[in-house]
Design goal:
Strand order of the largest sheet: 2-1-3-4-12-11-10
Radius of gyration: 15 Å
Largest sheet: 7 strands, mixed
Structural class: alpha/beta
Number of strands: 12
Number of helices: 5
Amino acid sequence: MTTIGVLDLQGATIEHIQQLEGLGVDALLVKKPEQLQQIDGLIIPGGESTAIGKMMKRYDFIEPIQQFASLGKPIFGTCAGLVLLAKDLGGAEDSHLNLMDISIQRNGFGRQRDSFEIDLSIKGIDQPVPAVFIRAPYIESVGNNVDVLATHDDKIVAAKQNNLLVSSFHPELTDDCRFLQLFINMVESKLQSQ
């Protein structure tokens, strides 16, 4: 059985767990670095990226997550998770995990009051997907090996690089699980190749 963990330091964890379980996947709240050994894929949820970054340092998650990624195990970062995976935070601060070859703009779509929901066309999914943007970052630029999956207002809002998947939006806040299913497919594909 596929097991996907959700980093449980701060942010929207329960919604991810419920969606994973609804799709027939074993889900685990990851509170300690050693739990990474029990999972096949990891979701870094939305929340406050600076707070999650500090907690990752405090509880020694940085190197174990980098090691997890180096093994080719899939990681999905939503909203704050996107910020945490990026190599370049637009000069605002040092990167956290420094894993994905993207440069981002934090809170690129505005503050909390500027939150919105749209139907978003995503590469690899037939029909548009409802996407909720809350104080969302966007990707300003990508490296050569990064595949852009979706844009909104000429801004990149979803991308994939090898075993890393990111979205500016919160797929866990809608009833549509197709974007999450893309990640599950990545995890299952990795398991089948072992």
